[in-house]
Every structure is written in structure tokens, then in C-alpha cells.
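Data card: per-record layout.
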Amino acid sequence: MGVGIPKQYLLLCGKTILEHTLHKISQVENLSGIVLVLDANDQYWPTLNCNSIPNLHVVNGGASRAQSVKNGLSYIAKQIANNTANNTGQDQEVKVLVHDAARPCVNVKNIETLVASCEQANQGGILAAPVADTVKRAVEQGEAPAVQATVDRSLLWLAHTPQYFELHCLLNALNHCEQAGLEVTDEASAIEQTGGQVLLVADGKDNIKITLPEDMLVAEAILANQLKQGT
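The structure for this 231-residue chain is written out next.
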């Protein structure tokens, strides 16, 4: 992003990206809690006031996305094990939603549609958007790449978050990929590499991931419209 602070602390519509994202996730129905995974040396989180978000837990992240997600899942698994041991909970199948802090424009109703669709299909799944643009496969050619072929886009989707899976299934998949040295770009890719199937649930294009400076302008416009409509 070319700024001196982590992008989740940049301001959009008067609040940080992270605050918008946490507010959105906290509105999801039947959510037991939120685990926020942060850098161990994060100096900005203590300056925010997110006390109004119920059942919010903060844990240290790792060197990669996969390791950070593993840390969050391991925390949940430990809490469940402790509750079961103390007879304050039951040993039951627990489902988790993994979401990027840099996606503050996610639609809460779409998250709930993801959960309902996965439960009906009895499998994990992700929010995703079908590819609309013409897709080119490139080949290296001197100083700049050139088109090698046009790719059939009819079966291509852009992976979004949240991604919804059974806790131990996802944790085991991430552990397997780590031990095997397999690349994990999102949670679905870990499930795929262990033979699992992942449901695609259509999402809006407004659920953008803030990556580049120009994304801030788009996100600001989307959030302003959402706040105006109360969504």
C-alpha cells in the first residue's frame, strides 16, 4: 500500500478497515465468537475501541496466512477441549468462518447464505465471484509477457472470503500442507490438496480485498453506499 502502517488500520468512512470488518462479522447470525489474529508486535490494535463487539478473542499470528489461521483455529480447538473437560460444553462438530480483515465490504446476508448453502450440501464452501473478464494465459517474451492463449472463463471463479469449514477438518488440512511443503493461498486450497470438495457460493463483486492504493477509493464508495442503506 506504500504507507507506514498496516493497511487494516487505514481509515474508511471515519473508521479503520479492521473496525468495519469486525462490525460486519459480528452481525452474522448464530456466531459464537470472533478470533482476531494479529501480529504479536501490533502497536495499533490497543488504540482502537472494539469493546462493544461480543466474544472477541485476540491471538498472535504467524509468519504466513496459513500459520496465522492455524493459530486461530488451534485457539478455538483448545477452548473447546477445555470446555468439554470441564463439562461446560459438548464434544461436537464446530464450524468456522475464516475472513480477511482487508475485506470490509462483505455483505452479511451473503455470509449467511454461504453458511446455509454449506449446511444444506453438508460440505465446506467459500464465497466467490464468477470471472466476467476475458482471461489470457501469458508466456514470457523478452522484457514483457505476451498472450499465449485465451482461457475458457466459463468455469473460472474468483475466491473471496469468508470461507466456511469444519474446524478440525480445516486444521488437519493446514497441518498436512505444512508438513508436505504444499503452498496454501487460502483455506479452500488446503482442503482441495487433501482431497476435499469445496462448494462455490456466489458473492457480489463489491466484496473487494483492499490490496492496492486505488482499492481504497472503491472501498470508500462501496462502504458509504452500504452505510447509507444500512447494510
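Known properties of this structure: The longest helix spans residues 65-85. The mean pLDDT is 94.

See the next section for split statistics.
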